[in-house]
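Structure tokens please, single chain.
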Amino acid sequence: MASFKETIADLNAQITLFGSFLKTERSVSKNTYVSYLRDLKKYFEWSLERKITKCMNPSLDDLLNFVEYLKEKALAHSSIARHLISLKNFFRFLRLEEKSTNQSVELLEAPALWTRIPFVLSPESVTTLLESPSLEDRYFLRDRAILECLYATGCRVSEVVNMELKDLHLESSFITCTGKGRKQRIVPLGKKAILAIKDYLQNLRPLLVKILSSTSMVFVSKAGKPLNRIIIWKQVKKYALKSGLNGKISPHTLRHSFATHLLSGGADLRAVQDMLGHSNIRTTQLYTHVDRNRLKLIHSKFHPRGNKK
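Here you go.
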């Protein structure tokens, strides 16, 4: 029987191999790769700290204790749920490699998640935000194009950051978006977003990429380098402040607003799911609970004691 020292070393080695598997076999995004390994590091630290001799084949009680450990770390329910997804995928890999026969992890359910209603801007507030970049802002053409793109497509900020010139199909009014798991989807573009992107591509981007003319990324910095998520996050904050908008506004706020406004206008739930790149429609259904006006209308129309006119 292997000693604890040998078992913990084996666990560490398998986590490293799992990381390689994610990159080469699953071709996951960098963000997903980092998240998985960060979560599994917690499992490794817990196993080491508590001297879990069966860390490669834990019992259900062991796993429940791990969940309690995560709670002690004051992690949010959503974070704990993500850790459990990482752990399940890791043990599926171990079973595939015949390094473990553990099935207990599949019985582990994430803690009940309180459905948080996302903060959504009104259409008027979105217009104010999107029109806030002006001549006084040094790179206003780029910033306006980014804001328009975020709202027009509902893309995640990471998807906008990684957008390449070949992904733009402006004459056909759509973009090709590469989302989680490197899955591609087609998302339509409206006229205002197309005009803003064209304006940026024609009148600013050529000046920014003079040195690094070979870069294929759409949105670049003053040195011609690809932007990162933090820069775009800061730009959204900057223009929200400039617009006098309240609330915790971030790039994801525009994604929430995109989905909610589409559903408010009567868009099909499945179509919105496809545009957002959600693998599970239950995630998209969250936005049906955000639009209070639509809920009032449904209640008024269908409830026996609704406010029918």
